[in-house]
Amino acid sequence: MESLTTSFVAWSFGLSTAGYGLFSIYLLSLGKDWRAAPRSQAMLAAIVSSSLWSIFGLLFAWTGLRGLLFSSTLADLLRYGCWYLFLILLLAQDKENQARSSAVGKWLIAGCGLTILSGFILHLGLASGLLVAEFLGRSLHYQAVAMIILGLILVEQLFRNVTEDSRWNLKPLCLGLTGLFIFDLYLYSDALMFGRIDADAFSVRGVVNVLVTPLLVMSNLRSHDWTTKIRISQKAAFHSASLLGAGTYLLLMSGVGYYIRYFGGDWGRALQLGVLFAALLGLVFLAVSGSMRAKLRVVIGKHFFSYRYDYREEWLRFTRTLSQQDSAHQMGQQVIRGLADMVESPAGSLWLLDGNQSAFYQAARWNMPSVKETEQLNSQLIQFLMASGWVINLEEFRCYPARYGDLLLPEWISSIPNAWLIIPLMVGNEINGFVILAGARTRVDINWEVNDLLRTAGCQGAGFLAKLQATEALLEAKKFDAFNKMSAFVVHDLKNIVTQLSLMLKNAERHRDNPEFQQDMLMTVENSVERMRQLMMQLREGATPPGTPCGVFLPQVIERIQVSKLTQGAALETRIDEQLTTRGHEERLERVIGHLVQNAFDATHGEGKVWVYLRRNGDRAVIEVGDTGEGMAEDFIRDRLFKPFNSTKHAGMGIGAYESAQYIKELGGEIMVKSEQSKGTLITVTLPLFEVRNESDLREREVA
To answer: Which residue segment(s) compose the domain that 574 sits in?
Structure first.
């Protein structure tokens, strides 16, 4: 059985030797230009060291000499170091981002170097016999696991931060190295748990490397000279730091668990399981803790990047936060939360100008108590914010008040628990409001960078709020405009009714004893009452008079208008060529035609004539209202006639013509005007006919 395992190990490392050997020969054949690049040299070193590792493993499988196993592990350390160097060079190749790549240039490089160095020291201790073999064995396993975790972090950094157009080139490389590192992680974590290397896993290690080699070749073909542009983002650095912290934490806890098990006697196994469970529980707590994540961001901002913030991420997050709102109140809360997230603040409140534009009141709050006090526009605080645009750090103000000149803060600010920052919301040179934030979850140094970020974000938030306020004001103005427009229509109709009744009363002095006049007067009063009832319904419901359009018999409408004018002492000439019916509201259509007739009488004096003709033109009814009066100018007809609040009459409101044109369009009709000054006007209204087919017509059509 052992000979079979040894034979498989030999075949496994033999295939690995062949694969890496051929790959090395291929890379050497690419020429001096390719080998001149540092990244190409690191790639070649990693493949050659992998070949040496495979050769020593093959010789160990053949001979069983422990010295060859020792050489194989040293070669393994060497190839990990070469892969580290290659990945770091890929990450740091963009000169424009080298300042921001300090995350790789400082802590990660130091960690990689220390891990490789500790491995060589442990191997020297093993070779010299200075260290205890059992202690040395577990230490080597810990070192191997740490080395593999660092390799995974580097691969993660590379894949997360490569540009989209270059990710295709690096996918095979990242996939291959991830496969190698994960298999080695399984091998050494198993050894860490059971205190010995799994022979089966060790024998397969060469085959795993052979399977990975084609992926490395493919990636080298796609990225011939390894000039892919890499960008480091702060978000990716945070994830890598989390992975590094989690790996270190679990390694320490597993070491403590092993110590307890080794020295705990009969209770060792139980204590080890308890400690491991507590460790996992603590890790989950740290992962979900907002304060711990905030502290980690602060540490990374101070030591990993030349700038604390990744401005692209901050601005995308702030804009996304502002867009998540449905009302003005929610918009205020989103402005607070967007600013608070930038400095890890858990609470805040927003203050905006009131309707009188004289004082600021608390318009929105988030995790902060309500404050009833207001701040006057001419107060010292507001004047200071307007003049300087500074972010006021209340902690700094208490310690160094001279930095803020003669500023005196209002007393109500001291009533806000844990008040920390006052951020002005500026729109140009005017202040739209300010935000008060509570103290951060962790210690955050407010320097020039934080001040500039908060001031700029405050301006953007102020712009959003100003736009929302302007939109609400516009909607309110439109509502008032609609109400005023409806009121103007009602007043116009009332004026016409009053005019009609006044003329009727004037003529009653002469014709009160005439039975026909009395009958016409009753009809006029009844019609006026009905029209006023419709107006009351329109005012109450805020819309057009109720009822669906139906057939309107036009000759009857024209006849009623003629009778109405006759009671007013005006002679209206009518001619009806055909009995026609159109579709609409009878009362509104009578009001429209009556308005056109009344305008014609108003423009006609003395011996002038006014007429209404009804005729048919195809499937349309044509109503002509003409007069021989003053006429209208062409530019007035074109630019002003059918627009509201434009009229040629001194006492006119300019509503009737506009309402008439709008209603005729609603019915699918048209209105055309021909006029010549001092000669008269002809208004032609065309309306679609409303034809009712009887049952016999329908049956004949169905039979046909």
So the answer is: 547-688
